[in-house]
Amino acid sequence: MVSVSNRIAQVKQPRGGDGANQKQLSELQDDYGRQKHLSVETEIPVRAFVPNFLSIKARQIEEWVNTQLDARSLLPVLLRRLIHSTGNEIHQIDFPGYDNAQRKGSDGIVAAGKATPWVPEGNSYWEFGTNLNPGSKAESDYAARLISIESSVRSNSTFVFVTPRNWNGKSDWEKKKNETGDWKSVRVFDASDLEQWLEQSVLAQIWLAEQLKLPVSGYETLDQAWSRWANGSEPSLTPKIFAPSLKAYKDNFKDWLSQPSFKPYVVAADSKDEALAFLACMFNELEFQGFKDITAVFTSPEELRKLISSSIDFIPIINSEVAERELLNAHQRLHCIVIRPRNAVDKEADIKLDLLNYETIEEALISMGIEEWKIERLAKESGYSPTILRRRLSQNAVIRIPVWAGDDDRAKSLIPLTLIGAWLTEAEADREIISKVANRNYELIEDDIVRLLRLDDSPVWSVGCYRGVV
User: Mean pLDDT, to the nearest integer, of 401-409?
Assistant: First the structure.
């Protein structure tokens, strides 16, 4: 077979003309450019140093779309996470998912500075579907894009079709479409390709494992953290509850993400679940959604250790002290977020979630459908704390009763402190009064305070030399 480059050299001058057949030469040059582009992309090495994590097979991916009705609206979310976590110099990515998945036009658009085995260099237009007949869907989408996108744009762009099903005819279809020259190149990914792509993205594996309801422990997505927080209340909590905090800390958070990391970023709240729920809302803000796709929450030191030892770029959110110990100096390479109790002694936080004001709690409760006559009572009962408000609205006994209240001795030790309310540790008179009321040595009381401050949803607070009961 004669190569395209040789065919270009063999173009004859038209009979009676003074120059080469310009139309034929131009077509051959375009064909040569496309073949050269495809040749270069096939030589791109797969991302290295990705640890073994979860093993999700093509069969499970196809079963997902067969059994879950929302798979069509979640497929673009999976692809977006895959692209963000494995792409190279991604300048633009638009993959609407969830409620926006059925928009008109291309299902996805990507602009990449460099190619990977999965994401073409330059502009690419993506189409996908969960249809039982991938070939029919691919033909329909291909024809639609030929009409909606000008040939001058297509000649410099790649068409990508994705199906979460196994498609035996994908290679023949891809070859046939590349021969037409309608696009710079045409690519097809099916369930088998998605299985291989997932092997290069631990973060996408974690997300898909949650959708597949696979048993996992030690890690989760922010979406799962938000679902656990919001749905622990009846009715479910709304992001409006964090509106003032999002506004107050957004610029600070953006500055931290835009600069090289030099220290862990600390977020403190009344409870760890509250802090995670806040972060879920923060990463849902438009300017942070790309970063959200490379985040994961860790409580297990073993799983975190695997990822930190690899070369993958991600944002670990640390939700336990044992996992935090595994960070070591990882913050010099990665943007790391650490969750800590708001009332912990001598712990400076970059974000410290304060109590709500009445206007915020009123707006949030109204949006949740709470009757107006209940709002003032709930505000007072919760002390304007989102964590306590969630507890008051929950029907789950485990959520309604904080951990410290389950220990009788610990709860009894709080009674004399509650009678005092607040005190200054440097004031000898205050220490003496506390000691008399509690009938205990003050040093032992201070030891109790330190232990209580380490608890999630702590019943006490500490600011400098001041102590008090929440």
Answer: 79
Q: Which residue has the tokens 């006559």?
A: 373
Domain boundary residue, one of 317, 352, 387:
352
133 and 269, same domain (yes or no): no
Shortest CA distance to 203 belongs to which of 46, 66, 69, 51?
Answer: 51
Q: How many domains does the chain have?
A: 4
Asked if residue 262 belongs to a domain, the reply is yes
CA-to-CA separations, 363 to 37, 232, 280, 371, in angstroms, rounded: 55, 19, 20, 12
Give me the DSSP letters along 138-182: HHHHHHHHHHHS-HHHHTTEEEEEE-SS--TTHHHHHHHHHHHTS
Residue 466 lies in a domain: yes
What is the extent of the structural domain holding 33?
A: 4-42
| 374 falls within a domain | no
pLDDT in tens, 266-281: 999 989 999 999 999 9
CA gap 427, 450 in Å, rounded:
18
Pairwise pLDDT comparison (216 vs 220), residue with the higher score: 220
Three-state SS annotation for 406-454? HCHHHHHHHHHHHHHCEEECCCHHHHHHHHHHHCCCHHHHHHHHHHHHC
Give the closest residue to 341 by CA, choosing from 270, 280, 278, 403.
270
For residue 43, what is the DSSP state?
T
In DSSP notation, 186-213 reads: EEEE-HHHHHHHHTT-HHHHHHHHHHTT
Residue among 113, 65, 118, 115 nearest 92 (CA):
113
**Tens digit of each residue's pLDDT (9 = 90 or more) over 82-140:** 999 998 899 999 998 665 556 677 899 999 999 999 999 999 999 999 999 999 999 99
392 located within any domain: no
Of the candidates 147, 177, 210, which is a domain's last residue? 210
Q: Are 123 and 156 in contact (CB under 8 A)?
A: yes
Angle, vertex CA 253, rays to CA 249 and CA 259, nearest 5: 150
Query: What is the distance between the alpha carbons of residues 316 and 291, in angstroms, rounded to a whole number?
Result: 11
Please give the model's pTM, rounded to 2 decimal places: 0.81
What is the pLDDT averaged over residues 415-439? 90
46: helix, coil or strand?
coil
Beta pairing partners, 12: none
